[in-house]
Please model this.
Amino acid sequence: MSATVPFNALKPAEDAADVRAAIDRVLASGWFILGPEVEAFEAEFAAASRVPHAVGVGTGTDAITLILRALDIGAGDEVITPPLSAAYSALAVMMAGARPVFADIDPERLTLDPRATEAAITARTRAIMPVHLYGQAADMRPLEAIAQQHNLAIVEDAAQAHLATADGRPVGTIGAAAATSFYPTKNLGAAGDGGAVLTRDAQLAARVKRLRNGGQTTRYRHDEFGVNSRLDEMQAAILRARLKYLAGWTAKRRSIAARYRSALNGAGVTVPREFDAGHVYHLFPVLTDARDRFQAHMKERGIETLIHYPVPIPRQPALQSASPAMCPIADRVCAQVVSLPMYPGLSDAAVAAVAVAAATFGR
Model:
């Protein structure tokens, strides 16, 4: 049967007229790469993120790689990162020429465990890359202390955490820089791929701008090895159109999360704690040892669910060359986690249907 409540809905809705006007504006301009839309979006997104600099790039993966390259992190260097995330987090480290080193996650917060992080530091470690997972910031205070003690950079993976905060501080203001993604499913999504680097460091921002455009300092002068990773004008215009909706969409996500939490209190699934009021609920995961039965239970009631993420990154075949350490907490969570529908377009009736279906599992 088709889902009564799909896991996500990506078609423009309340933003449709603004998105169409943005597309038409770019088509009429005839300017499609690194033009006024990108410049305007960078300024507007930086202001919304409360950082001085935002640099639009081709993908969130590229954003991580370009930050590391701008920090001169590459061959022979190690970057500590969690095993629970999209694999692109670690692949981006490898794209920079560095080696991802995996430290296990906190069993309740599901983000990088500071104690495991400190234990993973070696003479080759150059950076710590926490992932602000599912929209909740990592445990940044102890990670900052560890980084300072060992003279390490912090690179924030904020792909799932647009405008999230950690202890009241915006993500992207805590480390050397943050990478975010505008993949269509993200809280602020484009109509294709896109990403951005957020930073307080003007020199780092300038170098990322150079690296994203083939290392050019002036047209046809390539002063260093760069790549082709440019946020295009069409995506920038669409993101500008949607940015003004983001605060309201985030409020709706938090409202839905509160309803789910209330309904699932004492239910047959475990809901990870909200550690920070700055959580922006990109996803709403629950944990259960009977995941297959839970998904079948939800499907029978017309509710679509997905798994984020079923395979710990260190167990991915693509990561075998990194000789990764095993992470037992991440192994367990990856076998239990399942995500409920979470997006601003969910109606009150749909939210109620999801909550009732999940709450009745096992009863």
User: Anything to note?
Assistant: The mean pLDDT is 96. The CA atoms of residues 63 and 349 lie 38 Å apart. The two ends are 23 Å apart (CA to CA). DSSP finds twelve helices and 13 strands in the chain.
